[in-house]
Amino acid sequence: MDHSVSPAPNSQPPFPRHWRRKFRDAFRGIKEGIRGQSSFLVHFCAAVLVVVAGAVLDVNLVEWCILALCIAGVLTVEMFNSALESMAKAITGQSDPHLGDSLDIGSAAVLIASLGASIVGSIIFINRLGVMLQWWW
Fold it and tell me: Which domains, ranges and CATH numbers included, belong to the chain?
């Protein structure tokens, strides 16, 4: 059975985008996602503090990987939330309870990712502090 989708009548097939164009669009998306988003700036600053704390506490390779995944996860969810906000503004400038619910759910996703990353970071850093204190005593 053929599962391919045929184009709509009188429509041109989309031209393939080259990798250079895909990356350019992605970097433009990062710029647009960050622009005017104070919450992204807060999460980015927290990420910088995590990297500094990791360096000071001499975290190991596995811990770095876990911290990097947590940072990437939070920043990714924040970008998706920004995309939802941008789409909601494009759809309507008026108050809509369904769009409001969607935006609240997006914010909740950021909160859950941030809390999870904070718990993981706390576990890693408290463990590292314990290891350092045992070494000193």
Answer: 37-136 (1.10.287.3610)
Task: Kindly report, residue by residue over 92-127, the tens digit of the pLDDT.
Answer: 877 888 888 999 999 999 999 999 999 999 999 999
CA distance 52 to 50: 5
Name residues whose C-beta falls within 8 Å of residue 109's C-beta, 6 or more positions apart in sequence: 77, 80, 81
Residue 87 CA, chain-centre distance (Å), reads 17
Q: Which secondary-structure segment (H or E) carries 53?
A: helix 38-56
* Identity at 6, one-letter amino acid code: S
Helix axes 38-56, 19-34, angle to 10 degrees: 100
Listed residue (33, 41, 43, 29) closest to 111, CA to CA: 43
Query: What pLDDT is stored for residue 2 in this prediction?
Result: 47
- How far does CA 96 lie from the centroid of its chain? 26
